[in-house]
Design a protein that fits this description.
Layout (H helix, E strand, L loop, with lengths): L9 H9 L3 H19 L10 H18 L8 H20 L5 H5 L16 H21 L2 H11 L7 H5 L3 H17 L1
């Protein structure tokens, strides 16, 4: 049956998707994969979501377009799906940059956590690690304000963002702003 989908129009495929035929969406998505890639290419830079996330959002937008497409409205499926895909990606980019995602977006990837070497086990290595640790905290104490240090300690202790007001009596906005300044100051030093 999938071979016959090659001769279907986009509107016919959208009808099949609405009736619950998954093969119709496979054909439709293979036709419009270029569109999803092109729209994802519009989002770039360090604050943009990852390309894989944008592709997934684009495919969800294409699926929503297939479910809601009305040929009588006057737009072609290509035009309508382009708008749906783009709008879905814009929503994802906005969610990605929201204040709730700020700590995740500004954190360092786990791969870069290897900057502090683990000691091989000898006493000399342990002394060097201890000195590195003390040096790091001296730097933190000299650069950060009391509030910023408090926010950093909460963060490093594993306190979830939602727990901050109850655990530390600090409003979330204050905590978020303090963590933003902590990251900026420690990166610049």
């Amino acid at each position: 049956m999938p071979e016959e989908y090659a001769s279907f129009s986009d509107a016919q495929l959208a009808d099949c998707v609405r009736s619950g035929d998954p093969e119709a969406f496979v054909e439709l998505s293979s036709r419009y994969l270029w569109l999803v890639r092109a729209k994802a290419g519009l989002f770039s830079g360090p604050a943009a979501p990852e390309k894989e996330d944008l592709f997934q959002e684009g495919l969800l937008g294409l699926y929503a377009a297939a479910l809601t497409y009305q040929p009588a409205a006057g737009a072609s499926f290509a035009t309508y799906s382009g708008v749906c895909v783009y709008n879905r990606m814009v929503s994802a980019a906005r969610r990605h940059q929201s204040a709730g995602n700020r700590p995740l977006n500004e954190s360092l990837p786990l791969e870069s956590a290897g900057e502090v070497p683990m000691p091989a086990g000898g006493p000399q290595d342990l002394l060097e690690l201890r000195e590195t640790y003390r040096s790091m905290w001296r730097r933190i104490n000299s650069v950060l304000t009391h509030l910023e240090r408090r926010a950093l300690v909460l963060h490093l202790s594993g306190c979830r963002r939602e727990e901050v007001p109850k655990r530390a009596g600090m409003p979330l906005k204050t905590f978020d702003n303090a963590m933003h300044r902590v990251r900026r100051k420690l990166r610049n030093r």
